[in-house]
């Protein structure tokens, strides 16, 4: 019996029987958030740093990833030029503990060197070739500091800062990112997201006024593919992939005072479906292709 129970638990944790279980767990989490919020103002009614603009938002995934080398200053400018309200980006630490904008755990795929970002200091990372791998791009691009990206963003831009991890609290990624946002983010609308509740809990502890979003993913372990952390963190948004989003999900999230920012959008038909459901943001690779849906074609 113990062996059978163990197999059942492990199977659930690893997603083997997630199809019937996970939607129920997400609904319970969202409804719990609504119950906890009842009798007080919704999370986004707080005096948060950077209220969001009205209407659905169009954000460039790692910038205009479809036509520019991802997570570079050029890619972020391209996303704005293509009609985006702002960008989504990823942050990790350099060897000298500077928040740098990079998605992968290593430099192998997107630069001209091999190794981890922690093997290099911030100045060295900034001098790497982070564009040639992409193909035709008119100018050199290094790995930017988060500070440089925020300085380059126009007033009123939306910036989704995703923390890479998990990272131990003593490493200080959350604290250093919060410091940069406090110094350079007041002109724009910023939200910090992560797949890892401990990181968001640390951001909430350090800076209660910075909005946070919980990332969901159906193939992760149980705690990371459901919204169980949302009511515990007092999150401002959930960030699910498109495959998890239906009308029931959107209604439950909105009833709990949560924004719904969707990533992994399949195509334009999927984008139309999501906008009709009433989601609050789409995070897409091809900003130019989606901009007409938002009345922002250029």
Protein model, in words:
The protein has 298 residues and is of the alpha/beta class. It has one domain (2-294): TIM Barrel, CATH 3.20.20.190. 36% of the residues lie in helices and 14% in strands. It has helices at 2-13, 18-37, 73-81, 122-126, 146-152, 173-184, 197-206, 222-225, 230-233, 247-255, 268-277, 287-290; strands at 57-61, 86-93, 99-101, 158-163, 189-194, 212-215, 237-239, 259-262, 281-284. Helix 2 (18-37) packs parallel to helix 10 (247-255) and helix 5 (146-152) packs parallel to helix 6. The radius of gyration is 19 Å and the shape is globular. The termini are far apart. Mean pLDDT is 89; it is low at 39-47.
What overall geometry do the principal axes of the alpha carbons give? globular
CATH topology: TIM Barrel
Number of domains: 1
Largest sheet: 8 strands, parallel, barrel
Which class in CATH terms? Answer: Alpha Beta
Q: What string, H for helix and E for strand, traces the elements in order?
A: HHEHEEHHEHEHEHHEHEHEH
Main structural class: alpha/beta
- Strand segment count: 9
């Amino acid at each position: 019996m113990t062996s059978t129970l163990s197999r059942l638990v492990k199977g659930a944790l690893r997603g083997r029987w997630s199809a019937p279980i996970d939607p129920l767990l997400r609904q319970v989490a969202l409804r719990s958030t609504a119950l906890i919020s009842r009798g007080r103002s919704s999370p986004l009614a707080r005096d948060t740093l950077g209220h969001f603009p009205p209407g659905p938002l169009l954000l460039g995934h790692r910038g205009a990833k479809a036509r520019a080398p991802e997570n570079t200053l050029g890619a972020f400018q391209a996303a704005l030029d293509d009609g985006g309200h702002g960008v989504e980006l990823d942050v990790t630490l350099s060897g000298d503990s500077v928040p740098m904008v990079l998605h992968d755990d290593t430099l192998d795929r997107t630069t001209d060197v091999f190794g981890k970002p922690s093997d290099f200091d911030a100045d060295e990372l900034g001098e790497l070739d982070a564009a040639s791998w992409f193909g035709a791009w008119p100018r050199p691009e290094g790995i930017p500091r988060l500070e440089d990206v925020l300085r380059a963003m126009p007033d009123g831009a939306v910036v989704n800062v995703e923390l890479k991890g998990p990272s131990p609290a003593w490493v200080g990624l959350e604290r250093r990112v919060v410091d940069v946002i406090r110094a350079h983010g007041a002109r724009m609308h910023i939200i910090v997201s992560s797949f890892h509740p401990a990181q968001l809990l640390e951001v909430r502890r350090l800076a209660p006024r910075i909005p946070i979003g919980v990332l969901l993913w159906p193939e992760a372990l149980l705690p990371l593919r459901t919204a169980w952390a949302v009511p515990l963190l007092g999150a401002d948004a959930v960030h699910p992939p498109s495959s998890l989003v239906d009308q029931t999900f959107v209604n439950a999230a909105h009833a709990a005072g949560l924004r719904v920012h969707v990533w992994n959008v399949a195509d334009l038909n999927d984008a139309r479906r999501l906008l009709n459901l009433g989601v609050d943001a789409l995070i897409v690779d091809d900003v130019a292709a989606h901009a007409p849906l938002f009345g922002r074609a250029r």
